[in-house]
């Protein structure tokens, strides 16, 4: 068993702020639980985990790992 599976608590950062979450937490769950993103409509921002873009449709299935760095940024529309 690897350490990610045995950890009961994940240590993460959300926009540079350290926080903890339960093992198995998805990106969507993390965003719903924290004031930095909970006050925003999901379509108003984009997300990245460890610098890799995570599409809105994948937030429900993207399970976070210990040490992940989550970044929120304003989605830009236009051309």
From TrEMBL:
Signal peptide: none annotated. Gene3D superfamilies: 3.10.20.30. Pfam families: ThiS. It comes from the Bacteria. CDD domains: Ubl_ThiS (cd00565). InterPro entries: Beta-grasp_dom_sf, Mopterin_synth/thiamin_S_b, Thi_S, ThiS/MoaD-like. NCBIfam families: thiS. This is Sulfur carrier protein ThiS. The lineage of its organism: Bacteria, Pseudomonadati, Pseudomonadota, Betaproteobacteria, Burkholderiales.
């Amino acid at each position: 068993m690897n350490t990610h599976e045995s950890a009961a608590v994940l240590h993460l950062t959300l926009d540079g702020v350290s926080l903890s979450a339960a093992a198995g937490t998805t990106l969507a769950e993390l965003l719903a639980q924290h004031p930095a993103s909970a006050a925003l409509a999901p379509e108003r921002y984009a997300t990245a985990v460890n610098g890799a873009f995570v599409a809105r449709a994948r937030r429900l299935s993207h399970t976070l790992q210990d040490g992940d760095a989550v970044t929120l940024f304003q989605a830009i529309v236009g051309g």
